[in-house]
Amino acid sequence: VTMRLLSRLKDVPLLVFSRSIYGRVIAKHDSFQIVAAETRHLDHIVKFLGEYHYRQVPTISCFPNVDYVRMAERLSDDTYNQIKEGLSFFVEEEMSGEMVGVGLFYTLRISLKDHFSSLADKFKLCNSFYHWKLVEALYNNLDIREEYGSHRIIRARLYSLKPRFQKLGLGNTFLTPSNLVQLPGYQDVAEDKSLFSGEANGETANKIMGLCGYEDVKRINYRDFEIDGKHPFRNLAETTGNTHITVRVAPMNPGDSN
């Protein structure tokens, strides 16, 4: 990391190379630090996802009797392979060493429609089945790889914080593309005409990704989603502030949207 690179950082994390309780610190923001996720952290990350992430997804948590811990465990092979690429991280409170957030990112190499179809099959006996079918439908007639074929696409699988840390602006800090590309894992791809892409599910996710510069390229309104003659998310849309899910993209390099 050169001084020139460091000087480009404004109100984003300061790059450092120190140690945390878990591993290598790659950025800091106020009293929080980003730690590079490694495969040896898999159990910690899967535990975090089972305890905090999936219960915050509106189209999963709206159903009763979802085993969030088991869901995270069943997806642990995918999580392992995504961590292995070296683009993922977790957020740690510096003083306590508490893991308060996780961000999983990886290079998109597959059809997301097929991917979510397979997840719907995996969870067909769980109430979360409808969530996976919703996201599968989001990619009907939309192949991100074909739509942006000249680009490398970094998929943001998820970014999640423990509830009590969600109003501190950490999402804006750690999800903005111009901030992400400063992290060491991105240095070999930061000069490409590349994109970040991911789903924003619900009010909070859409607000944060919008503030971070991710463009809305497709959406499904919950109330309109139908499967097998049912509208599983109509009540969610009518009784909460969560109304839709979107696919969003943003250029990796600031000012480069071509």
Automatic annotation (TrEMBL):
<protein>
    <submittedName>
        <fullName>Uncharacterized protein</fullName>
    </submittedName>
</protein>
